[in-house]
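Task: sequence design from structure.
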């Protein structure tokens, strides 16, 4: 069995691994590169292997950095099945067409402004390509065994988000386990990752490999920010990712009101994507910690804004309330309309619940800029800006090491991927020091024979 690292090597995005056994070729994940321009440009390069030669894709979860190139390889000739859990397929039905829409919008904008060197600028892929990819999804349950030629595979819960899986692939003689993105053992909503078992080889992510999460309680922390805002009779605006983060925020707000930690005020979710994902969350009992009744209560804490007209009406309203709106780094979406109105007023709070990538509007807010540019105009920032990092859905360094340490027997080798250079190398060193396992950080494009 041969393993090639076609993405997520030396960086935390673009997850992509190729397994070859005889003439059988299987891709584990097919993610889009996100972040700085140098990474995004990799999306336009030809895949290192002919998509038509791939027999199947095994998808760990629906996040775009793991699934976002599926429409491209389908357009370019891949005709095999895309195996995933049911929630992953359902999330992909929301995320892939949306990613295609953004690609088409970017191309249209470049053509209108004339700043692309291509005439005309084209999208990386289209909505039609995304819809075609969705036709090739095939569901498989946790614990069930699937087969592609001589290879057998099994998916096990990884926590993180709905349907996320670690995937073990076997060829009859040896096995390799891909962690995917691992969740936290103390996640408020998702079950903890299942133990890795006894794979011969282990491919593990390292997103938080050089740090641990705060011991801060997210519910009391959020309650404190809400109370401060309400004392000023202001609005709490929370830019949020639609998948996972928005649902966790609703859970926290439900608990705050139920425990009497802050006055009960109206909560609005102004994001079509977050609305759809929350509906899916409500339908997915068993894939998360909440039973059906509790889940209904949590989801009922908010009013969901669906139409553009409702969104405009909400943006014009001012009363003590909470607005959860996409995007999570304030880089686009309906949250921008709220920022225009709320940022100039010192009574309000803009709460950024997580990491803000350099260059994003969210990052600028955290750095304390006096004005922000939205839709070509500058708006003063007088609202209080807060950032908390207690809602991450990723295992931290302690969680990663705990999971690796639960291997039933020492793996022959541990490959540390899906992390920036420092976090990845930190996990590599600690795996060797703590467990005595052979570990290394593979290079992009590197291939190894798993003998």
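Answer:
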């Amino acid at each position: 069995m041969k393993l090639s690292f076609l993405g997520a090597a030396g960086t935390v995005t673009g997850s992509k691994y190729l397994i070859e056994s005889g003439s059988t070729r299987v891709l584990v994940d097919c993610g889009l590169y996100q972040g700085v321009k140098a990474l995004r440009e990799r999306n336009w390069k030809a895949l290192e292997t002919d998509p038509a030669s791939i027999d199947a894709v095994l998808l760990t979860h629906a996040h775009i950095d793991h699934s976002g190139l599926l429409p491209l390889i389908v357009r370019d000739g891949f005709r095999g099945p895309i195996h995933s859990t049911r929630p992953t397929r359902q999330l992909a039905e929301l995320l892939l067409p949306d990613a295609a829409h953004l690609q088409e919008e970017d191309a249209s904008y470049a053509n209108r402004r004339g700043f692309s060197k291509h005439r005309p600028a084209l999208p990386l892929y289209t909505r039609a390509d995304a819809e075609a990819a969705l036709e090739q999804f095939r569901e498989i349950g946790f614990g069930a065994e699937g087969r592609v030629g001589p290879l057998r595979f099994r998916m096990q819960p990884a926590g993180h988000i709905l349907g996320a899986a670690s995937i073990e692939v076997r060829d009859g003689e040896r096995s390799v386990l891909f962690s995917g993105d691992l969740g936290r053992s103390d996640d408020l909503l998702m079950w903890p990752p299942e133990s890795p078992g006894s794979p011969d080889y282990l491919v593990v992510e390292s997103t938080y490999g050089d740090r641990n999460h705060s011991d801060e309680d997210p519910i009391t922390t959020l309650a404190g920010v809400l109370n401060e805002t309400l004392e000023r009779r202001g609005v709490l605006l929370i830019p949020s990712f639609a998948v996972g983060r928005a649902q966790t925020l609703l859970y926290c707000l439900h608990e705050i009101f139920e425990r009497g930690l802050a006055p009960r005020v109206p909560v609005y979710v102004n994001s079509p994507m977050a609305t759809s994902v929350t509906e899916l969350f409500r339908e997915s009992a068993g894939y998360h910690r909440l039973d059906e009744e509790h889940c209904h209560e949590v989801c009922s804490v908010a009013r969901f804004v669906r139409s553009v007209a409702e969104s405009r009406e909400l943006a014009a309203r001012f009363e003590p309330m909470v607005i959860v709106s996409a995007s999570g780094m304030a880089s686009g979406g309906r949250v921008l309309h709220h920022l225009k109105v709320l940022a100039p007023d010192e009574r309000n709070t803009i709460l950024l619940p997580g990491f803000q990538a350099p260059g994003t509007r969210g990052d600028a807010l955290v750095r304390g800029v006096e004005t922000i540019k939205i839709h070509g105009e500058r708006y003063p920032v007088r609202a209080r800006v807060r950032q908390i990092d207690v809602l991450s859905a990723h295992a931290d360094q302690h969680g990663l090491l705990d999971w690796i340490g639960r291997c039933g027997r020492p793996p022959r080798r541990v490959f540390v991927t899906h992390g920036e250079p420092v976090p990845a190398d930190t996990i590599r060193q600690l795996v060797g020091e703590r467990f005595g396992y052979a570990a290394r950080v593979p290079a992009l494009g590197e291939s190894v024979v798993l003998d």
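The mean pLDDT is 93.
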